[in-house]
Design a protein that fits this description.
The complex is a heterodimer. Helices cover 30% and strands 25% of the residues of chain A. Chain A is an alpha+beta fold. Chain A has two domains: 10-23 and 160-410, Alpha-Beta Complex (Naphthalene 1,2-dioxygenase Alpha Subunit, Chain A, domain 1), CATH 3.90.380; 40-140, Rieske [2Fe-2S] iron-sulphur domain (Rieske Iron-sulfur Protein, 3-layer Sandwich). Chain A has a nine-stranded antiparallel β-sheet with strand order 14-20-19-18-17-16-15-24-23, with helices on both faces. Chain A has a four-stranded antiparallel β-sheet with strand order 6-5-4-7, with no helix packed on it. In chain A, helix 10 packs across helix 11 (279-286). Helices cover 22% and strands 29% of the residues of chain B. Chain B has one domain. Chain B is α+β, with helices and mostly antiparallel strands. Residues 72-76 of chain B have low confidence and may be disordered. Chain B has helices at residues 41-49, 52-59; strands at residues 3-7, 12-18, 25-30, 36-39. Classes of the chains: A alpha+beta, B alpha+beta. The interface between A and B is medium-sized, with 24 and 15 residues.
Chain lengths: 414, 76
């Protein structure tokens, strides 16, 4: 039976089955995860020729490699012979991969290099087989994106206005580049992936879910999302959304966005001022973005998340600390703050994970059938750039997400 | 004897400097099979200068160790 998404996704409410229905999840894989641009990793994870890391795009096991000539490839981790996994380690350095089952050997570009006892195939070079390649690979600010669709919008078109937020992250580095080299934590949540995505720019929950953390640490984050906050939630189009906290940060001193002051990171500030002159003030005040890039890249100022669906009710959230190239003084602090908030015993993600999982259990209840996403719809407005914005704790981002989701799920399948 | 292990999920090789001969050699030991090869300075220089294609030929499993031609079979 064909799902009528226009019935399940309405302007101010969405149906609970969207989080629990196996058929819908299967359709999402085809129409979103194996079609649109999905963030897989960052070029800094394979910095040197021969480097490789294993990644996931939904259930697809992908090897990200860097060849001798510097090209980054995304290969499917499946031997062309019998379909065995070729790579087992999560990361390593090898110009070639040899399947442990029968020894078929590939270059790290996916090209077949050779196979044992080749007379059984009529000699050397007789098989025009190689590792599967993700059809389209592109990068933006070093983030590596994959699209399993041979055709479709370019990465630049897909990112749209969200690209500017990634630019804003990169410009915090004195060298204009971020690196994701601190290692990844994998947080498994028994929840549908969309509950995580919606939560990322939900400014309504922090004061409740994270209230205890804010009270203990004296963090100012809670007030950024209060009713008095001048921050806005912005629908960036294309399913992307952000909590734009800059209106609040602009009332503060440089580096306050990071919960610190210039005096604590003098080398970094000096470097940035030398590099950017007067514009450094703006960069150091406005700080990093809080943006959810559809469907799976979330930048939460100091942390980067890549969300990967495992099953209709299971998701892995890969988390790492932002590292700014050329800013060792900042990087130590970024790492410790990231560990404190989303590390193994991190306070923020522990709170959120509890909510994701409770939410998943809750939506299985038969009534009421709907989830409400109307908050702030009556006070939504359009900003000077034509984007819909709401108050800091409005559900403008969710409505943008669902609008784009619906267009992908209803459109012609590719 | 100083020894380094160069290992990946695909191979594990112990590398050391061998001074037993009249001149120094690099000693390579495939730790999975025990197979040993020594490389002298000129051989190492040749590897350093060998085109990638030549190295790739060596990595072809049928090039030696897993060859089914009797005259090639010198490996484990």
């Amino acid at each position: 039976m064909t799902v009528q998404y226009s019935e399940l996704i309405q302007p101010e409410r969405v149906h609970g089955s969207l989080y629990t229905d196996q058929d819908i999840f299967a359709e999402e894989l085809q129409r979103i995860w194996y079609r649109t641009w999905v963030c897989v990793g960052h070029v800094s994870e394979v910095a040197r020729p021969g480097d490789y890391v294993r990644k996931k795009v939904a259930s697809q096991d992908v090897i990200m490699t860097r060849s001798k000539d510097g090209e980054v490839s995304l290969l499917l981790n499946r031997c062309a012979h019998r379909g065995n996994l070729v790579c087992e380690d999560q990361r390593g350095n090898s110009s070639t991969f040899r399947c442990p089952y029968h020894g078929w050997t590939y270059r790290n570009t996916g090209e077949m290099l050779g196979y044992p006892y080749n007379q059984g195939y009529g000699g050397k070079g007789k098989l025009s087989l190689g590792l599967g390649r993700v059809p389209r690979v592109d990068t933006y600010q070093g983030f590596v994106f994959a699209s399993f669709a041979a055709d479709g919008p370019s990465l630049k078109e897909h990112l749209g206005a969200a690209a500017g937020e990634l630019d804003r992250l990169a410009r915090l580095s004195p060298e204009g580049e971020i690196e994701l080299t601190a290692g990844w934590l994998q947080h498994r949540a028994k929840a549908n992936w969309k509950l995580l995505v919606e939560n990322e720019t939900d400014g309504y929950h922090p004061q409740f879910v994270h209230g205890s953390v804010f009270s203990v640490t004296g963090s100012h984050i809670g007030t950024l999302y209060s009713d008095k906050s001048t921050a806005v939630t912005r629908d960036l189009g294309g399913g992307h959304s952000e909590n734009d906290l800059r209106p609040e940060f602009r009332k503060m001193e440089p580096m306050n966005w990071f919960g610190t002051s210039e005096a604590r990171v003098p080398d970094y500030v000096a470097k940035m001022r030398a590099l950017h002159g007067e514009q450094a003030e703006e960069i150091l005040i406005e700080g990093a973005p809080h943006v959810m890039v559809f469907p799976n890249l979330f930048v939460a100022e100091i942390s980067v998340f890549m969300i990967n669906p495992v099953a209709v009710d299971e998701t892995v959230q890969n988390v790492t600390a932002v590292q700014l190239k050329g800013a060792p003084e900042m990087n130590r602090r970024l790492l410790s703050q990231c560990i404190g908030s989303v590390g193994p015993a991190g306070m923020l993600l522990a709170d959120d994970s509890e909510m994701y999982e409770r939410n998943q259990r809750g939506v299985t209840a038969r009534v009421p059938e709907w989830l409400d996403i109307r908050r702030g719809a009556h006070r939504e407005r359009v900003d000077e750039n034509g984007f819909r914005i709401g108050a800091a704790n409005d559900e403008t981002g969710m409505r943008g997400f669902w609008s784009h989701y619906r267009s992908l799920m209803e459109g012609e399948a590719q | 004897m100083n020894q380094w292990i160069i290992a990946s999920e695909f191979a594990e090789v112990a590398v050391s400097l061998d001074l037993d001969a009249n001149g120094p050699r690099l000693r390579l030991e495939d730790l999975r099979s025990g197979h040993v090869r020594h490389l002298d300075a000129l051989e190492l220089e040749s590897i350093a200068w060998a085109p990638d294609e030549r190295l790739r030929e060596l990595i072809d499993p049928s090039a030696g160790r897993w060859s089914d031609r009797a005259d090639d079979a010198d490996g484990a």
